[in-house]
Amino acid sequence: MEESFEKLKNIVFRREKEPIRIVVLGSPGVGKTALIIRCLTNQFFNHYVPGKEEAYKYTVNVGANKAQLDIMDSKGKNTALISHADAVILVYSVIDKDSFENIKTLIKNVRDLNLNSIPIIVVGNKNDLPKKRQVSKTDAGLLSASYNVKVFESSAAVPVHDVRNIFAEVCRLVFEEKKERRESDPTDPLRRMTLNDIARKNSLSLDSTDFIKLVL
Ligand SMILES: Nc1nc2c(ncn2[C@@H]2O[C@H](COP(=O)(O)OP(=O)(O)OP(=O)(O)O)[C@@H](O)[C@H]2O)c(=O)[nH]1
Ligand SMILES: [Mg+2]
């Protein structure tokens, strides 16, 4: 069991019926799908299926407790999803400078669309390819400071720990940010809706929905 999930359980699992809705966005090919699959299955998904958009339900069990993460691997055109997300993970590739530049536009879009001050976590993926690196850690640090976002580096191609810790950190930030809002409006029906429900409600078509259960 990973320590970060262990720390989460007291704050997350009491509210198990409310999914934590996480939308993952970024330029094509940066590794959004690979990062999600790495987190959920501990496998490296080394096939490129461009632009596939899917919803994942990820149930984390720790002993008798459960938390449901509702993760949407998104192209970013579905503004309804962004406006109802509890957190957004923006992915760039450290070997693709343009994808890093695009993060600034994405941050602005998310802040315009989602009126709650939801956590935005930026992930610089593919850091297993140092010879091809185009975005330095200094660039990432400057972005973090000027846009007030957390930036992590990761790789979907190497073992799992940093990727799962990123998702754990996202949950922690969601509960810090959302605690007051949740407690102040317990009747809000949106609280129990998944991103897939929201997509359906907005007549958005998704390729499929995967239900993946992970037992830690
Ligand atoms: N070396 C390396 N390759 C990676 C990494 N992450 C993803 N890839 C590869 O990069 C390619 C694109 O990865 P995807 O996860 O499909 O990218 P994506 O962001 O989902 O792309 P779109 O769905 O088209 O927007 C695939 O061939 C992956 O195997 C990584 O951390 N390191
Ligand atoms: Mg993809």
Topology of helices and strands:
Elements: H1 3-12, E1 20-26, H2 32-41, E2 54-62, E3 65-73, H3 79-84, E4 87-93, H4 97-113, E5 120-125, H5 137-147, E6 150-153, H6 161-184, H7 195-201, E7 208-215
Parallel strand pairs: 1-3, 1-4, 2-7, 4-5, 5-6
Antiparallel strand pairs: 2-3
Helix pairs in contact: 1-6, 2-6
The structure holds guanosine-5'-triphosphate (GTP) and magnesium ion.
Strand percent estimate: 15-25%
How would you state the average pLDDT, rounded?
A: 78
The total of beta strands comes to 7
Which structural class do you get from the secondary structure elements?
alpha/beta
Strand order of the largest sheet: 6-5-4-1-3-2-7
CA distance, first residue to last residue: 5 Å
Regions with little confidence, pLDDT below 50 for 5+ residues: 11-15, 206-216
Largest sheet: 7 strands, mixed
Attached small molecules: guanosine-5'-triphosphate, magnesium ion
Taking all Cα atoms into account, the compactness measure Rg is: 16 Å
Shape: globular
Order of helices and strands: HEHEEHEHEHEHHE
Total number of helical segments?
7
Question: How much helical structure, as a percent, in the residues?
Answer: 25-40%
